[in-house]
Amino acid sequence: MTPEFVTGFFLEAIKLTILLAAPMLLAGLVVGLMISVFQAATQINEMTMTFIPKMLAVAVALLISFPWMLQVLIDFMQNLIIGLPQTIR
Fold this sequence. Notes:
With about 90 residues, the protein is an all-alpha fold. It has one domain (about 5-89). The chain has 3 helices and no strands. The protein is elongated and about 65 Å long. The N and C termini lie close together (about 10 Å).
């Protein structure tokens, strides 16, 4: 294993992590922004109002994107296992 291979592998793993986390993070961001605008417009500063909708949005995003996320992880692992003999050399 060369340093370039290890660096490339970790770079791909980080890209995959960001790609898999993006749907939940974006859902939380959008819902949080909408609630913040609503709170600013109505001057309601209730802290618990932000948590439940964000949690629900993240859960829904996870449920919707889970099959895709699982397929991406399976593809990554298959490529890793298939390339293992070349890596060992």
